């Protein structure tokens, strides 16, 4: 009965509780650190900018010398970015370029569009206010201030920030090792001839790519036949040295579904069957030191359970602090009077008005609809939806990578 299944929230919270972050750290090149997870909080060893810096191409002045329109000053020096001028003599200006340090004594930059040059002199058509067009020393980052917190997943922007204060290497958690296999006698690889009753193994491509985007080390064990002893042996092999064993297929209740029984033999099963659609037969357990996550074989079910459960689980193992993004609330551009007792995740897109519209094919095998979709509409158990209602929407942009 659907009512006796474990809820989405309960399942997710149990999984995340089980996901103890890996402890080992390593120091790696900042250039190679994209998507890795910081193991220590970083503080800035320098102030940024290090000194007062011109924010515009123009003329560095003392404001007191340009107190009225039409003020005229001789230009006594030229300071390109990367060089340092001499102290600014009162009653003079310095030609200066964006990014160059302000000469001592100057307290503003007048952009060149607002002056007129006459020989060695400039005439000002603008009266600057103190520190106009100047980036003050330490205004971006104060010396010693915290720039990135332990548990941050390093985005390109975060790498740029670390580099801006001089980090050539970064302390990160080691990568998580995931052993992957698919089960199913019907599966053949693309490139092979397709026999009667056979299908191509699409989950292998799906899951490898999803794991790689998360920065995991993937050990791919290919396809395992639907036989109990072979499934047991495959689980043993996969668990050896892996942090996580991830499987697809064979977690339902048919006689050919051996994965759950094999996990019970080789380790223990902690969680199985949730009140969600798709993805009901999701399974979690342990195989010695390794975690076991069993995804349903239907490709859409495998995808949905991966992004909703496996992704936050793996991020937590990597030491990421914030692993769950709350859903957005958007208007429903559809009506769905028939409510399912399970929490549903429907393939959807936002239309030009920002309303969620559904793909007409919501079957668990419909991969094309997953390519069409931009996200998932989440419908709580037994909740009919009318056009215009607010619904939870989880954009793929927040569920992938
Ligand atoms: N009597 C019941 N039958 C089923 C139930 C149930 O509760 N009672 N649950 C259904 C649900 S929901 C799902 S989801 C599936 C999941 O079953 P399995 O995880 O055991 O998956 P399989 O039976 O192995 O495969 C299901 C389906 O997906 C195709 N598949 C499998 N692996 C791949 C792959 N690597 N690439 C592409 N496609 C794959 C497979 O051919 C099947 O069509 O069970 C329902 N049944
Ligand atoms: O709930 Mo199953 O995961 O739909 O096809």
Question: How would you describe the overall organization of this protein?
Answer:
By secondary structure, this protein is of the alpha+beta class. It folds into 4 domains: about 1-25 and about 175-315, Molybdenum Cofactor Biosythetic Enzyme, Chain A (3-Layer(aba) Sandwich), CATH 3.40.980; about 25-50 and about 140-175, Molybdopterin biosynthesis moea protein, domain 2 (Alpha-Beta Complex), CATH 3.90.105.10; about 55-135, Molybdopterin biosynthesis moeA protein, domain 3 (Beta Complex), CATH 2.170.190.11; about 330-400, MoeA, C-terminal, domain IV (Beta-clip, Beta Barrel), CATH 2.40.340. Helices cover about 20% and strands about 30% of the residues. The chain has 7 helices and 26 strands. Strands 7-4-6-5-9-8 form a 6-stranded mixed sheet, with no helix packed on it. It is elongated and about 90 Å long. The relative contact order is 0.13. Molybdate ion binds near residues 277, 278, 296, 298 and 301. Ligand LQZAQKY5 binds near residues 182, 199 and 298.
